Amino acid sequence: MRLLLGLGFASALLAADWKAAMAKAKITPEAGIWMSGYAARTHPSEGTLQDLYAKALALEDPKGHKVVFVTSDLIGFPRRITDAISARALKQYGLERAQLVFNSSHTHSGPVVRPNLETMYDLPPEQWAKIDRYGQQLTETVLNLVGTAVGQLAPAKVTYHEGQATFAINRRQATVKGVAIGLNPSGPIDHSVPVLRVTDLSGKLLGAMFGYSCHNTTLTGEFYRIAGDYAGYAQEEFERAHPGTVGMFLMLAGGDQNPNPRSKNELAVQHGKALALATDEAMAKPGVPIAGNLRAAFQMVDLPLAPHSREDFERELKDTNQYKVRRAKEMLAAYDRGLPLRKVAYPVQAIRLGKTVTYVPLGGELVVDYALQTKAAFPKEKIVVAGYSNDVMCYISNKRILKEGGYEAVDSMIYYGMPGPFAPEVEDVLTASIRRALGQVGIK
User: Taking the model in full, what pTM does it have?
Assistant: First the structure.
């Protein structure tokens, strides 16, 4: 992994209220690494279709308050890595935890990043060694990337825009056997494409950060080449259309959203172009300037899991499903240590850019309901809710989905090494935490 590009916006003779800088680094793994996202894969990667990148957008307000958004073509940044980077960024760059956002596109064609979805895999020691080596390299690369972006901060113009893309569809389809992954055109959806546009003081485009609520699963389990999926193609298309710029993809609340159609690489290209076009169309319209002061808040909250007992996993140990057996062994080991898993530590963050727009980065595979509910609760505010941020520990369902059941609520928790679904009150706990974080940055 090596640092490829740092864009500082120098202008010694001009003054601006805000400063910005963007940078990117290649994070493509070495050959023959196990790929994440699909349990059905049977062997390591077979080459690279697209290089993977981590990218950074550093912003500084007139009072010197900073924030750095880091995006990545990964299944997810686990807390083990984000904690390590954050601790070192505090010492080296003076950045508090609230000033750092780590977001992942959740591509299912990237490498395993330990311990994300670790229960899904039963790999030989040499694969785990390769995966651990990748995690160490990733930590160093992203830390240096943050430093590059902060070190090149210079006067800039930043504006907020909104567009739309329509290739996502709610995937929770009702069947006679219950909810299954399929197509649900009437289910909750969020087609918005929020865009932060960055230029130098002369108006020259230097990059943009654009988001969307949709799984990066156009490339399904039969694909064995490393790739960023539609998000990777969208970023490539943006940078091709605007040479010398940095295009960043921010994954929003796409836990129960899939691209449609999918399962062909040309469809990933098609969706990527659609998202890049939506970004350009949004930027072509007048945006809202980012002005005023930056405020940031970060907190860890405990999300309650449904009750379980040792006997539950002793029974599961006899199951024919290998993943349930693996999960049962992990849970029984936790019981043996006297530490059965009853709650999940969860990161909640809010970043308010002046009085223009507020980003709400949340952990896990966040279902779209949380984004829709948060935006509806504050209709006069421009709010962008991003899942897959700071840690991806499991799916984050709400009351409705927990009641309906299905993959997001129940089955996925096996692969994530969770003892079972969340308790129904998880929605109330998380909603209150979001409101508290928003209050801390000035939104009541």
Answer: 0.95
Which two tokens mark 292? 């005023």
Which residues have CB under 8 Å from 231's CB, separation 6+?
A: 73, 105, 107, 212, 216, 249, 251, 272, 275
The values of phi and psi at residue 182, to 5°, are -160, -130
What is residue 235's predicted lDDT score, i.e. its pLDDT? Answer: 98
Give the position of tokens 């928003």: 438
CA 30 to chain centre: 23
* Nearest residue to 249 (alpha-carbon basis) of 68, 104, 431: 104
> Residue 13: which pLDDT band, with cuts at 50, 70 and 90?
very low
Distance (Å, rounded) from C-alpha 240 to C-alpha 247? Answer: 10
What rounded mean pLDDT belongs to the chain? Answer: 95
- Reading the block at residue 255, the tokens are 């836990």
Higher pLDDT pick, 11 / 155: 155
pLDDT per position as a tens digit, 369-418: 999 999 999 999 999 999 999 999 999 999 999 999 999 999 999 999 99
- pLDDT of 286 higher than 70: yes
What is the maximum alpha-carbon separation in the chain?
72
Cβ atoms within 10 Å of 228's Cβ, excluding its own: 28
DSSP character string of 193-255: EEEEEEE-TT--EEEEEEEE---B-SS-TT--SB--HHHHHHHHHHHHHSTT-EEEEEE-S-T
What six digits make up the tokens of 129?
């060694």
